[in-house]
Design goal:
- Belongs to the short-chain dehydrogenases/reductases (SDR) family.
- Keywords: Fatty acid metabolism, Lipid metabolism, Oxidoreductase, Prostaglandin metabolism.
- By secondary structure, the protein is of the alpha/beta class.
- Helices cover 44% and strands 17% of the residues.
- It has nine helices and ten strands.
- Strand 7, helix 6 and strand 8 form a beta-alpha-beta unit.
- The longest helix has 23 residues.
- The N and C termini lie far apart (59 Å).
- The protein binds 1,4-dihydronicotinamide adenine dinucleotide (NAI) and ligand LF5ATMIK.
- 1,4-dihydronicotinamide adenine dinucleotide binds next to helix 2.
């Protein structure tokens, strides 16, 4: 038995291998009951690797059951097998689908609710960088988040018999300021911020019982970073490769675990709605947006 602590909330959790004995299993079960997200059901898009994998794991570590959605079937199966070993097979559900398809995503939400008996936490995380195929970038990064948010509300809002809950939409630092080597990516991430803020206000006024927040990390250590300087994805901005590299050096590269701990803050802090949490090497802070007056 290995006892570890989530650095964010100091919630104890137990990692349990298949060879553990009865009393240890009982202790593991009792510890799970004490966790902050015990009894909660989460759904994460783009869960197979990178940040989505980190978000899924921190949700599991804090007691939630998690539906893992990804277009990458092979990667999803590898992750599901690893999670089964660590947390037990009944804690996750693997659903292969693309956020570009209304039908596939709708089906995945329904299967999650049918399997786990409800839905409390949704993380719209799937995203790509592709300045060449810019329509696909918009389709996944912005349209996929809109689709995921609307489906989440259908299942979670109280007027539909849902339990309420929280949606975290993954934007970026490039959703708050320009990443000059990736203007389409920048536009989609600004779009995620604008859409989520408006939806958060609507949710509050309509009393849906659902909080909607945005996560805005700087560069993080995932395979997406290779897109910054690849011919295939940088498109006409490949000549700015040097500037992009310099920016990455200046900003630094975040560990996935650090981004995941800040994601958990947005999930658990019930005072936060319509807020963007910016995560940088020097720390995390909530964004102050300009106040508009009529
Ligand atoms: N890595 C970074 O520096 C940062 C990433 N982000 C954002 O975090 C999110 C996750 O990115 P990373 O983990 O870094 O990238 P990643 O490339 O490591 O993982 C993305 C995952 O999304 C999946 N995916 C891609 N298209 C999909 C689709 N159409 N439907 C379902 N799943 C799909 C991929 O198969 C993959 O498993 C993205 O929205 C990205 O824009 C934000 C700030 C920094
Ligand atoms: C392209 C794929 C790689 C990563 C995408 C990911 O979402 C990460 C984004 C990280 C950084 C975004 C930067 C945004 C920059 C700005 O807001 C600029 O206005 C500021 C530019 C330079 C500031 C230099 C300085 O004074 O520190």
């Amino acid at each position: 038995m290995i006892c570890t602590y989530s650095r964010c909330l100091l919630i104890p959790f137990v990692k349990c291998s298949s060879s553990v004995s009865g009393p240890v299993r009982l202790l593991s079960y009792l510890t799970t009951l004490m966790m902050a997200l015990h009894g909660k059901v989460a759904l994460v898009t783009g869960a197979a690797q990178g940040l989505g994998k980190g978000f899924s794991e921190i949700l599991l570590q804090n007691g939630a059951k998690v539906a893992l959605l990804d277009v990458n079937e092979k990667g999803g199966k590898v992750l599901k097998a690893a999670f089964d070993k660590e947390y037990g097979p009944d804690r996750t559900l693997l659903l292969t689908c693309t956020v570009e398809s209304e039908e596939q995503l709708k089906d995945a939400f329904q299967k999650t609710v049918d399997t786990f008996g409800g839905l409390d936490i949704v993380c719209n995380n799937a995203g790509i960088v592709n300045e060449n195929n810019w329509e696909k970038c918009v389709s996944i990064n912005l349209n996929g988040v809109v689709r995921g948010t609307y489906l989440a509300l259908q299942h979670m809002k109280k007027e539909n018999g849902g339990r309420g809950g929280v949606i975290v939409n993954v934007s970026s630092l490039a959703g708050l300021g320009p990443l000059l080597t990736a203007p389409i990516y920048t536009a989609t991430k600004h779009g995620v911020v604008g859409f989520s803020r408006a939806m958060a206000d609507a949710s509050s006024v309509c009393d849906y019982g659902v909080r909607i927040n945005m996560l805005c990390p700087s560069f993080a250590d995932t395979s997406l970073l290779t897109c910054l300087t690849s011919d295939e994805t940088a498109g006409q901005f490949i000549s700015l490769r040097g500037v992009a590299e310099k920016m990455k050096d200046q900003f630094g590269v975040l560990e996935v675990s650090v981004v995941a701990e800040n994601f958990l803050k947005l999930v658990t802090d019930e005072s936060r709605n319509g807020e963007a949490l910016m995560v940088q090497m020097q720390g995390a802070s909530y964004v102050t947006f300009p106040k508009m007056s009529a």
